[in-house]
Structure prediction request, 212 residues.
Amino acid sequence: MNPIDAVTLEVADLAAVTRFYSTVLGPDSPHLRLRATEAATTGFRGFTLSLVVSQPGNADALIKTALDAGATLLKPATKTLWGYGGVLQAPDGTIIKIATSAKKNTTPVTPDFDEFVLLLGVQDVKATKQYYTDRGLNVGRSFGSKYVEFTSDAGHIKLALYKRRALAKDAGVPDEGTGSHRLVLSGTAGPCNDPDDFIWEAGTNSPLTATT
Prediction:
């Protein structure tokens, strides 16, 4: 089961943000849609996007592509116990982590990614996990009250839950934030508003599209 068909980001400057994501994800990305909004938001919006790559060189190449397209660096790419990666912020304010579990390059470097993961920062991981399993989602991995990952097929969006404060720390930003998440999901759980007020619409498949 693929819980998410697409992620819609609500943005202020639709034309500029469309150019950015078309450059980073490709113009025909099945993962992302964009929608114009004037909704107010401040601080951390409670989620991050994670692009998982196969090796450190690909992480560097993709980070450079994003920075050249207008992103801001939040955390430079570094080696860690789990692998290698960095964090940046897109022009619309969305936080994107680019990372790999590999420690060295084994193939020619490209700015390509293998997985697109949406991490929702939630107040109560166990309660939100139960909310989603009650709506038909299947758990792939679960680490108690800290982290939950739902199943998805290769090439589809992966949904995961993380404690809000921990997710903000991982992104390198304060966890305070108010207003709209500026995020709408379409897929299995919709239509609904989850316990942390993330909005789901009924599922539908569509490539990267900008709508007014």
About this structure: The two ends are 30 Å apart (CA to CA). The domain at 4-205 is CATH 3.10.180.10 (2,3-Dihydroxybiphenyl 1,2-Dioxygenase; domain 1).
